[in-house]
Design brief:
5 helices
Length: 168
């Protein structure tokens, strides 16, 4: 079965999809029966329902895979958000953001994102600090730890590893 590809340079705008010699049209492997108009608004699905859980898991896995490919040197690489448990994106992170934009989030935005994802707000124990030792940890260092914890949660491993090597 060969591929009959049209001459893409002669089509204004978008080119039509290529057709296989058997008459089948090439489609994206991601094109399924998902209703893309409702992708960001699963209000009609009950929290905890199998369909909602499947949609959340599939979306978060795709975001995790995409985020894992972002290089630490790509300041303008896009980091994709995960869906929360209710099937919605966090209000402060409802569209993909660049690495640089995430690094520049203020503390209140980071805290709201952490609360939406139900992540621990105090990240010092995760990185070797003591929960009760508030001395010696500057607010800048704490904010950096939160940003790194967010990158780690979203699956941006290359960025986290680079920052660990660079800073610690």
């Amino acid at each position: 079965m060969g591929l009959d590809a049209p001459d893409y340079f002669h089509y204004p705008g978008h080119a039509p999809p290529p057709r296989f010699s058997g008459g089948m049209t090439a489609t994206s492997p991601f094109a399924g029966d998902m209703d893309y108009d409702r992708c960001n608004t699963p209000y009609d699905l009950e929290i905890g329902s199998p369909e909602l859980n499947h949609r959340i898991n599939a979306t978060n896995l795709a975001a995790q895979l995409a985020n894992g490919q972002v290089s630490s040197s790509a300041k303008y690489g896009k980091i994709f958000p995960h869906l929360c448990e209710d099937g919605r994106y966090p209000p402060d992170f409802n569209i993909p953001k660049t690495v640089e934009t995430i690094r520049l989030l203020d503390s209140s935005q980071l805290e709201r994102i952490f609360q939406a994802y139900r992540l621990p707000v105090d990240v010092r124990p995760l990185h070797g600090g003591s929960l009760y030792a508030r001395d010696g940890v500057s607010s800048t260092k704490l904010r950096t730890l939160r940003v790194m914890a967010l990158f780690e949660y979203l699956g941006a491993w290359k960025i986290v590893e680079y920052e660990k090597l660079r800073r610690w």
